[in-house]
Amino acid sequence: MxxxxxxxxxxxxxPPGGWMVLAALALLWVSHAQGGGKPGCPLCRTPTLAPGTExxxxxxxxxxxxxxxxxxxxxxxxxxxxPRVAVINALRRLHxxxxxxxxxxxxxxxxxxxxxxxxxxxxxxTEITSPSGTALRFRFSQGTGRDVHILQAQLWLYLxxxxxxxxxxxxxxxxxxxxxxxxxxxxxxxxxxxxxxLPTLQGFFRRQETMLRLELECHGCHLNATAGSNSSSxxxxxxxxxxxxxxxxxxxxxxxLRCDQNSNLCCRKDYYVDFRDIGWDDWIIKPEGYQINYCVxxxxxxxxxxxxxxxxxxxxxxxxxxxxxxxxxxxxxxxPTRRRPLSILYFDRHSNIVKTDIPDMIVxxxxxx
Length: 369
Hints:
The protein is an alpha+beta fold and 369 residues long. The chain is 18% helix and 33% strand. Helix 1 packs antiparallel against helix 2 (54-69) and helix 1 packs across helix 6 (313-323).
């Protein structure tokens, strides 16, 4: 990912231990689903989060899970980080293959075994179209019969510091005249800025197009510098995305379906946690985030008690909630049936670089208990 900045709140206090953390957060989930004086969906049918609460709920869950499984009472306070050159050199040595060539720590796995996972980085071809406008073109190769699912997409633009002129500048990104994102920025600050592109890029790949053309308007700044008209410029605009690709005809496992608007049966809902959003990008080196997927949906009798359903802490959590919720009756719950570890590279409190695999962090498939 490109460089970014943001607040880095320190997290203090002792998180509850074991599966009680999940129980507390799951109970919070239920309170959101059934709050506001209106009867919510019965638990273990279609638990939902109130609008605007999903993000805060999942970010809190991610923080508690990582700290607990790393046996940390709080996030490390990095006061004297190692020099960047030293870190890069250490990572190069850590990931060197037997033949001596580097193997970057950028590999990640798709939630489904029959999907291929990709990280896409595309640099823009630029063309100045007016004193305040420029066109950004991104080219992609698309094969026929491929189902591309975009998990995350951002456009990164560099704004040079303005020594004269306005106190603020406005950057607008549009597609075919439709505004996608807009930011008002302090002109003297400068730096890299990200613009959200997930729905736009998902629609682009769904239409099987090969060239994405965005319009950039910059009011109050020098657009030549912002657009990085020199192709060798280190400030050239670029697009970065995470995606999974499924080839045509590949089988989809019945119990690992992604949630969509066409079904309310037990399914896996995907959510990407970016460590910058919780201020943890200063001590977690790699990855930049991870999929904190969760299970949601109805469990009718004909899919309940699926063969091979393994007991887990998630099952215990929802059983605890069901015991305190008379609406659920004896109906089974939609819970994880397959999980995998998260590989993580981070600074400890002594600024040592540590690499480890945190077990059972990413939900791959869901089923009915």
